[in-house]
Design a protein that fits this description.
This protein is 32% helix and 23% strand. It has 528 residues and is α+β, with helices and mostly antiparallel strands. A hairpin with a 5-residue loop joins strand 17 and strand 18. Helix 1 runs parallel beside helix 5 and helix 12 crosses helix 13. The longest helix is centred in the first third of the chain and has 17 residues.
Length: 528
């Protein structure tokens, strides 16, 4: 990974005009970002286009977990669990500033559908399957200990609990740093560029007509291979592909119905003010065979998720009142004393919902396989669907094997680091003294950017006023907003608040951070 001085990376659409690439990746979520990253690592000339912002879809609306999938043991997807546990280890190694171990507690009640012995067996098997990739071994907790760790947990019928380990991530930044890694390796990447239609020759796709949704200009882009990694939007892209193959008269008269490649299910989340515990909590639901998570997240509690079929426009997915009621009712069942405390409307900081792009399969949504699928269409487009966030490296590898069957790939099992990965050699205290910042601020920047924290501090050195905090709601400083615009292709206020700095998940009663970001965005756009 090139690790020299970071150049300014503003959005540059001109370099795409009439470009010829080995691989065009459509979709700037985790799979598209990783595929572009791996393709560039293997020496391909790569383009990556995203119609909105990077990670603005499902890839920033997850439960923020990197995990093997304990509950997939129930559906006997043992290969998937083993694969995901191995990939979890790789991510902890390759992106230590974005993926960190997290302990989980499962309380078990006498009336639960999953018995005490079944939960114990499942967690034991989970550790066995992890083998040398294990984070830590599980342990049993008595009811009294469990209530100390989880204040307010219902005591009636509580048999005890089990503590085990998985990992937590910053999903939006993990996507972004894969994009930046691809760009550092020579890929051309851009957000806010939508593919309008496909260009074909002799029935095979040779490129696309794309539109810069910021500037409004359309342009053509050509590629030897086109990869579609758009998740919930897959069926819509398939329709565009079909329309590109039909004469205009047939398009207006109708078309043969397409068999959907993706089944979308909605996962809704709520971020509540306050934190129950430093441990994550897994709660078996009373209505179905799902589980809910209550996860410590930026000093607050992230609660999720639902799993319901969704057939409307993917651009309009959102958490509705029914989702919130479902989550809160389940939480109040095991935290009866919190009904008038944390889990109520007034304590909600943010809500978000994403769509799982499951490989199409009928049946109960919670039991549909999370295995990924890579399929090539008649016109040569490679579609990537399904899969788990945790296994994105393996998905990217399988995609590269599909489009480069005769070439040996770089073995990323030994390392697939992202932008900012690596060991930080400088001391926190020495760096704080050097830049005139507090130790807590320096530690926060190191944790947030990894080795690239110095790129942000370079802005502080050039302009000391940028060391000032954005707001009292977070440790973020003004230099981070400037850096996001100059070097991380942030365009809108939402890009910064939701995905570059994750301020949307912090409680702010003053709104100063939004006003300050608005001011910085405005001044930089107008060269002030």
């Amino acid at each position: 990974m090139p690790d020299g001085k970071r150049r300014s990376m503003r959005r540059d659409i001109s370099r795409f005009a009439h470009g010829q690439y080995d691989c065009l990746v459509i979709g700037g979520g985790i799979n598209g970002a990783a595929i572009a990253h791996m393709a560039a690592l293997n020496g391909l000339k790569v383009a990556l286009l995203e119609k909105d912002d990077f990670a603005s879809g499902t890839s920033s609306k997850t439960t923020k977990l990197i995990h093997g999938g304990l509950r997939y043991l129930e559906t006997f997807e043992l290969d998937l669990v083993i694969e995901a546990l191995r990939e979890r280890f790789y991510l902890l190694r390759d992106a230590p500033h974005l993926v960190r171990p997290l302990s989980f507690i499962i309380p078990v009640y006498k009336t639960d559908a999953r018995s005490w012995w079944l939960v114990r067996l499942g967690v034991w098997l989970y550790d066995q399957f992890a083998g040398r990739y294990a984070i830590g071994r599980h342990r049993l907790l008595g009811a009294n200990v469990l209530q100390q760790l989880m204040p307010g947990l219902k005591a009636e019928g509580l048999r005890g609990g089990i503590l085990y380990y998985d990992a937590q991530m910053d999903d939006a930044r993990l996507v972004l740093e894969n994009v930046l890694s691809a760009e550092a390796l020579g890929a051309h990447v851009a957000n806010y560029v939508e593919v309008k239609s496909f260009l074909k020759k002799d029935g095979l796709v040779t490129g696309v007509i794309a539109c810069d949704t910021i500037g409004g200009k359309e342009f053509e882009l050509y590629a030897r291979t086109v990869v579609c990694a758009v998740g919930p939007w897959t069926n819509g892209v398939m329709l565009k592909e079909q329309e590109s193959a039909l004469p205009q008269c047939q398009t207006s008269l109708g078309r043969r119905p397409l068999r959907p490649l993706v089944r979308t299910t909605k996962g809704a989340h709520v971020v509540c003010q306050g934190q129950i515990s430093n441990h994550a909590l897994i709660i078996p639901t009373s209505r179905d065979q799902r589980v809910l998570f209550v996860i410590p997240w930026m000093g607050n509690s992230l609660v999720g998720t639902t799993d319901t079929d969704y057939t409307a426009d993917p651009d309009r997915v959102a958490t509705d009142q029914e989702d919130i009621d479902y989550l809160f009712q389940e939480l109040r069942r095991v935290f009866p004393g919190a009904a008038d405390g944390m889990f109520k409307k007034e304590k909600i900081i943010a809500t978000f919902a994403g769509l799982r792009p499951l490989a199409y399969q009928p049946g109960v949504s919670a039991k549909v396989s999370r295995q990924h699928l890579i399929r090539e269409s008649d016109s040569g487009i490679v579609y990537v669907v399904g899969g788990k966030y945790t296994t994105y490296r393996k998905i990217a590898q399988d995609c590269l094997k599909k489009i480069m069957p005769s070439r040996s790939l770089v073995d990323t099992r030994n390392g697939f680091p992202v932008f900012g990965s690596g060991k930080i050699g400088e001391s926190v205290q020495g760096t704080a003294e050097q830049y005139g910042l507090g130790i807590a601020t320096i530690q926060y920047l190191m944790d947030f950017y990894g080795t690239r924290y110095k790129d942000v501090l370079a802005l502080v050195r050039a302009n000391p006023t940028l060391k000032e905090p954005l707001c009292t709601c977070s440790p973020a400083i003004k230099a981070q907003a400037v850096y996001a615009i100059q070097s991380e292709m942030a365009i809108t206020q939402d890009d910064l608040i939701k995905r570059r700095l994750s301020l949307v998940h912090r409680y702010c009663h003053r709104g100063q951070c939004r006003r300050e970001i608005d001011r910085l965005v405005h001044s930089m756009r107008h060269g002030l």
